[in-house]
Design goal:
- With 66 residues, this protein is mainly α.
- The chain contains two helices and two strands; from the N terminus they run ββαα.
- It has one domain.
- It has a two-stranded antiparallel sheet.
- Strand 1 and strand 2 form a beta hairpin.
- The structure holds zinc ion.
- The site of zinc ion (ZN) has 9 residues, from helix 1 and helix 2.
Length: 66
């Protein structure tokens, strides 16, 4: 399991890593920051994962009642 230190998110490895994808890059280079010069684009697998993460966060936020 690879954890992104910036967001403490566990990034799942994918079957076909694409190093243009920032998330695949983190999995391939644990502990290193993604090079800012490189334009980040999520691969198909991680784009789908990101969508699921956002849905999860939205559900979690609903529990906070101020
Ligand atoms: Zn990816």
């Amino acid at each position: 399991m690879i954890v992104n230190p910036l967001s403490s998110t566990v990034i799942p490895p994918v079957a076909a890593p694409d190093l243009r994808c920032a998330w695949c890059w983190y999995v391939a280079h644990p502990g290193k920051a993604y090079p800012a010069a490189q334009s980040s684009s999520a691969c198909r697998a991680h784009a789908q994962w990101l969508r699921q993460q956002r849905t999860k966060q939205r559900k979690g936020g609903a529990h906070h009642v101020c």
